[in-house]
């Protein structure tokens, strides 16, 4: 199996995407006319920089429409998030409406229990039935991750799990859990959003760096491997990938690159959580399971990173009200943000012209 990496330069994203797919033999190698397709992006939080680009998703939709594929978009956002609110905050609801595509919340659909072949973290696992019924096109964004090193194709499939299994994967061991999930879910195609990649303390609050790449391949394992090669990420720092690669020796000529010689591909700097952070994070997930999934949302709401208004800097310009996707989340009269309504998209902070909105709390 080959992997292609195409540099997006002067042409539009759709053209670059088609070129990347053509390098692997063309779309008909992976998708047939009238196929039922599930697009699985990374929408785990309502922060645009931390999620798959809408521009790339639109390019994928336009490409699939040429073969009359029946498309839906599915995601199960992070354990503290409401997927429908995340869709709205990211503007995905408008994109789906534009193309007549149904949006699926994996926590709200029928589930079935499946056995995990050679499972070590899980012997069996509950998955949305629709994940197993449709061809999946996996659409991760390449980011560093303070626990798993990077999050890309393999890690993105963890988003298919119901929230209680997401929590359980951290208790049982997230690295092996990712390997187990990938032994069940096999995407027809993986398309990595590396237009901008996240480094440092990912996967939510890291720094974004332009890379202008689209990376495509059939094997989630090989795509992740070559992403590490391209961005100088040591294999030992990505334990789930290192584990899954045992006995497999990818060849350098399996990567087909269309990258200008003068293009700069950044080296991704990974900031890992401390041993205490990793222990505490796992402990919180254990507590979350004991508390029927209520502990993590409570901690996120009250001590997690969240926006707040600096009353001295606020000039009542109402920019924050105009960009906030959730009605009633910002009370500008009293200069407060309602924690129970805020989805932490941080658009208010991004667009505030006076810097009156800042972040407080812990990056959980």
Question: Would you kindly provide a written description of the structure presented here, covering whatever features stand out?
Answer:
With 364 residues, the protein is α/β, with parallel strands linked by helices. It folds into two domains: 3-258, Rossmann fold (3-Layer(aba) Sandwich); 275-360, 2-Layer Sandwich (Alpha-Beta Plaits). Helix content is 32%, strand content 23%. It has 14 helices and 16 strands. Strands 1, 2, 3, 4, 7, 8, 9, 10, 11 and 12 form a ten-stranded mixed β-sheet that branches. Strands 5-6 form a two-stranded antiparallel sheet. Helix 1 packs across helix 2 (54-65), helix 7 packs across helix 8 and helix 7 (163-172) packs across helix 11. It is globular, with a radius of gyration of 20 Å. 43% of the residues are buried. The mean pLDDT is 93.
Itemize the secondary structure elements and their pairings.
Blueprint: E1 3-7, H1 13-22, E2 36-41, H2 54-65, E3 70-75, H3 83-90, H4 92-99, E4 102-105, E5 111-115, E6 124-128, H5 129-133, E7 135-139, E8 141-145, E9 149-151, H6 153-156, H7 163-172, H8 174-182, E10 189-199, E11 207-217, H9 220-230, H10 239-244, E12 255-258, H11 275-290, H12 295-302, E13 306-309, H13 319-323, E14 330-331, E15 336-337, H14 347-351, E16 357-360
Parallel strand pairs: 1-12, 2-3, 2-7, 3-4, 7-10, 8-10
Antiparallel strand pairs: 1-11, 5-6, 8-9, 10-11, 13-16, 14-15
């Amino acid at each position: 199996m080959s992997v292609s990496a195409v540099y997006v330069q002067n042409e539009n994203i759709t053209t670059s995407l088609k070129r990347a797919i053509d390098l692997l033999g063309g779309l008909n190698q992976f998708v047939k006319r009238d196929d039922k397709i599930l697009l699985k992006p990374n929408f785990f939080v309502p922060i645009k920089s931390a999620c798959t680009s809408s521009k790339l998703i639109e390019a994928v939709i336009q490409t699939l429409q040429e073969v009359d594929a029946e498309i839906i978009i599915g995601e199960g956002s992070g354990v503290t998030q409401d997927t429908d609110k995340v869709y709205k905050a990211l503007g995905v609801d408008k994109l789906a409406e534009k193309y007549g595509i149904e949006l699926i919340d994996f926590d709200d659909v029928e589930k079935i229990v499946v056995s995990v072949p050679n499972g070590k973290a899980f012997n069996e696992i509950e998955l949305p039935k629709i994940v197993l019924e449709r061809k999946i096109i996996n659409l991760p964004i390449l980011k560093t991750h303070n626990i798993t090193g990077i999050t890309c194709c393999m890690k993105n499939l963890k988003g298919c799990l119901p929230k209680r299994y997401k929590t359980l994967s951290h208790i049982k061991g997230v690295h092996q859990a990712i390997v187990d999930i990938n032994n069940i879910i096999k995407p027809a195609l993986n398309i990595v959003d590396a237009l901008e990649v996240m480094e440092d303390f990912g996967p939510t609050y890291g720094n974004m760096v332009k890379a202008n790449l689209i990376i495509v391949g059939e094997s989630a394992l090989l795509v992740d491997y070559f992403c590490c090669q391209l961005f100088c990420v040591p294999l030992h720092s990505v334990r789930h990938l290192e584990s899954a690669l045992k006995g497999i020796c990818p060849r350098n000529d399996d990567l087909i690159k269309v990258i200008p010689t003068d293009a700069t591909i950044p080296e991704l700097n990974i900031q890992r959580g401390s041993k205490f952070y990793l222990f505490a994070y796992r402990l919180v997930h254990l507590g979350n399971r004991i508390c029927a999934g209520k502990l993590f949302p409570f901690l996120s709401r009250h001590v997690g990173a969240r926006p707040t208004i600096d009353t001295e800097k606020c000039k009542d310009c109402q920019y924050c009200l105009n960009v906030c996707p959730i009605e009633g989340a910002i009370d500008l009269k009293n200069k407060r943000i309602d924690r129970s309504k805020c989805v932490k998209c941080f658009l208010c902070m991004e667009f505030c012209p006076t810097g009156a909105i800042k972040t407080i709390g812990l990056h959980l």
